[in-house]
Amino acid sequence: WSSDVCSSDLVALSATSCAGPVLWFDSPSSSTLLNTGNTFTTPSLNSTATYYVQSGSTCTGFRTPVTAAINPNPDATLGGGADTLNVFAPYVLNGPAGYPTYIWSNQATGSSITTSQSGLYCVTVIDTNGCFGSDCIYVNVANGILSPERSEEHTSELQSPCNLVCRLLLE
């Protein structure tokens, strides 16, 4: 028997017995009793864990494994993990690929959004298991004038929509 949940969840496992109380253990032969009763709530789990249930205190030779299968939360990283993106308008901010559901902080639901305004943008992705991951990034949109001059002390690199690196004069 098993139960599937998302990472960091508590799992409520249950079993019934017709021969006395239900006893929950951490291994097939351990004497460490975790719980007595029809239900056992695990601690927060980040990986799959197996517990063992025994029917009654006199039937000690047989324990049934009960597995709490943990599905990892999806990775929703925006901007390669950066805290801020410096870009030209309009800019397409792509969420991580491959998820059926996207929910952006501006209520958009596609895998990407287009912005021409600076601000904090967040996305939550939900996978086919119902597990979710979220990330936010500050997008700094440049609406300035490009100058061919270079002044390393007064410039900031900006990513253009076609992935060219340009320099914006900040004087």
Question: What does it look like?
Answer:
A hairpin with a 5-residue loop joins strand 12 and strand 13. This protein has about 170 residues and is mainly beta. It contains no helices and 15 strands. It is about 0% helix and about 45% strand. The C terminus is likely disordered. The strands form five sheets. The chain has a five-stranded mixed sheet with strand order 1-7-6-3-4, with no helix packed on it. A four-stranded mixed sheet has the order 8-13-12-10, with no helix packed on it.
Q: What is the topological layout?
A:
Elements: E1 2-6, E2 12-14, E3 22-25, E4 33-36, E5 39-41, E6 49-55, E7 64-71, E8 84-88, E9 91-94, E10 101-104, E11 112-115, E12 119-126, E13 132-142, E14 155-159, E15 165-169
Parallel strand pairs: 1-7, 8-13
Antiparallel strand pairs: 2-5, 3-4, 3-6, 6-7, 9-11, 10-12, 12-13, 14-15
Contiguous uncertain segments of 5+ residues: 146-171
Structural class: mainly beta
Rg (CA only): 26 Å
Topology as a string of helices (H) and strands (E): EEEEEEEEEEEEEEE
Gross morphology is: rod-shaped
- Biggest β-sheet description: 5 strands, mixed
Mean pLDDT: 80
Number of helices: 0
The N- to C-terminal Cα distance equals 67 Å
Q: Per DSSP, what share of the residues sits in E-state strands of 2 or more residues?
A: over 45%
